[in-house]
Design a protein that fits this description.
The chain has helices spanning about 40-50, 75-80, 95-105, 130-135, 150-165, 170-200, 215-220, 240-250, 265-275, 300-315; strands at about 35-40, 55-60, 85-90, 110-115, 205-210, 225-230, 255-260, 280. By secondary structure, the chain is α/β, with parallel strands linked by helices. Bound molecules: zinc ion (ZN).
Length: about 325
């Protein structure tokens, strides 16, 4: 099921980029017969909209403000899917309810793609415990959050450009040009993130998180996720798990641990009080922060804000991120 992406597209690095839209269609009316691309989640829809440009309708199935893991599709989502020419999701079981709803509601024969297919099997991170893997001889569950790592996001963008070219070859040049410009921007992010994270004092270069969307990002930048608080079924941790987490956070001696507004939980205040580590609730991964039109309401803006938050909370110097921050340009 997993396959390496055939990467690569040409074009200039400084093409004009339309402002991305992830909620419904682009601001200008779409031309007659415009392609309609339905994308499972907002951060991925933003990447697709950047590559697709203003002549294509790009809609995120999971709406703003909803959590993509536990979102239950509504009747209007079936109508959105009925008009889809192409369906793009993350894959790796990010949300099986949304995936099977899409499969039964887009027109039969609609081409569908899983962007996480860009990862090679030896790079994928299992979420099963060591005991479960030993018992079965292999893992059954994988962390689906490739996109917070801008290097995987780049592979997503190359794949998106290929998909768009395949379904609309007449406009191939535009897709390739916008794809290449976004790839260049993500390369700049990767370099800026590596430099900013290198300013974190070495003893603090580790993350304790509530929702584990940071494992690929952490592996990329030498900032390993040493503990995730939320059980993998999105329930609240049990009293025993909570006790263990407090001990872990204390033993790790991290200045801060991280969560997101998508998953508020009362246990976080308890962990903060008992561990002496500060709870930072501002990370975004499954949802775009801000409102449509805000610079942070985009994949790039979201990730710069995330890395600024992480570097600052762990005692590093985030000023090197200014050069890549769309909120400051
Ligand atoms: Zn997530």
């Amino acid at each position: 099921m997993l396959a390496l992406a055939a990467a690569g597209c040409g074009g200039s690095d400084d093409a004009a980029i339309p402002s991305p839209t992830t909620e419904g269609t682009a601001a200008a009316p779409l031309p007659e017969g415009a392609l309609s691309v339905v994308v499972s989640d907002p951060p991925l829809a933003d990447l697709v909209a950047r590559v697709a440009g203003p002549q294509v309708g790009v809609t995120s199935l999971v709406p703003m403000g909803a959590d993509g893991h536990t979102y239950e599709p509504r009747p209007e989502d079936a109508r959105t899917l009925a008009g889809a020419d192409v369906y793009i999701e993350n894959g790796l079981d990010l949300n099986n309810v949304v995936s099977s709803f899409a499969l039964s509601n887009y027109p039969s024969g609609t081409p569908h793609y899983a962007l996480a297919d860009v990862i090679s099997p030896d790079e994928v991170i299992a979420t099963d415990s060591a005991e479960e893997i030993a018992a079965h001889g292999h893992a059954h569950n994988y962390n689906a959050h490739l996109w917070p790592d801008p290097v995987y996001a780049r592979a997503y963008v190359n794949r998106i450009a290929e998909i768009m070219v395949e379904h609309d070859p007449a406009n191939a040049a535009g897709y390739q040009e916008r794809g290449a410009a976004l790839v260049a921007e993500l390369q700049g992010l990767d370099a800026a993130f590596a430099s900013a994270i290198a300013t974190i004092p070495e003893a603090n270069r580790k993350m304790v998180v509530y929702h584990d969307s940071w494992s690929y990002f952490g592996r990329r930048y030498g900032l390993p996720v040493i503990g995730a608080i939320q059980p993998t079924d999105f329930s609240e941790p049990s009293a025993e798990e909570l006790r263990n987490t407090i001990d872990e956070v204390r033993a790790a001696a991290v200045p801060a641990f991280f969560g997101s507004e998508v998953f508020p939980s009362d246990v976080l205040a308890v962990i903060e009080e008992e561990s002496g580590s500060t709870y930072v609730a501002d990370l975004s991964d499954d949802l775009l922060p801000g409102s449509p039109g805000d610079p942070e309401h985009s994949y790039v803006g979201m990730m710069v804000a995330n890395v600024r938050t992480i570097v600052t909370a762990l005692g590093g110097d985030p000023s090197g991120l200014d050069a890549v921050d769309p909120a400051l340009s």
